[in-house]
Amino acid sequence: MIKESLCTINPTVQCKIVSVPDLPMLSCLGVHIGTELTVVVKNCWKGPVVIKLAGKREIAIDFHVAAQIMVEEVRLRELSF
C-alpha cells in the first residue's frame, strides 16, 4: 500500500499509522503505530491537521508534526464466497 503523510491524505479516508516521529507528546495523545484514524480537517496555510482517532477522540496536530506521521489507507476486505 502507498504511504502518505497526514498532510497529503484526503479527509474522510480511514487510514492506519505506519510511522511516527519520536515525540512523547504523540504517545500520550494515543498516536501510535497501528492506530486507525480519519483526517477531519486540513487547514490552509500550514495550519493544524485535525484527526479523529478510532472514531472516538478528535485532536489537532501541528502541520510540521503531521507531515512526519506516515499513514496508509485501510482497505476493507471484500468477502468472497
Characterization of this structure:
About 10% of the residues lie in helices and about 35% in strands. With about 80 residues, it is mainly beta. It has a 6-stranded antiparallel beta sheet with strand order 1-6-2-3-4-5. The chain is built from 2 helices and 6 strands; from the N terminus they run E-E-H-E-E-E-H-E.
Q: For the largest beta sheet, what order do the strands appear in spatially? A: 1-6-2-3-4-5
Fraction of residues in helix: 10-25%
Number of helices: 2
Mean pLDDT: 89
Number of strands: 6
Structural class: mainly beta
Task: Describe this structure in a few short sentences.
The protein is mainly beta and 81 residues long. The protein has two helices and six strands, in the order E-E-H-E-E-E-H-E. Helices cover 12% and strands 37% of the residues.
Fill in the keyword field for this structure.
6 strands, 2 helices, 81 residues, mainly beta, 6-stranded antiparallel β-sheet
Any chance you could write out the topology, listing elements then pairs?
Elements: E1 3-5, E2 14-19, H1 24-29, E3 36-42, E4 49-53, E5 57-61, H2 63-66, E6 70-73
Antiparallel strand pairs: 1-6, 2-3, 2-6, 3-4, 4-5
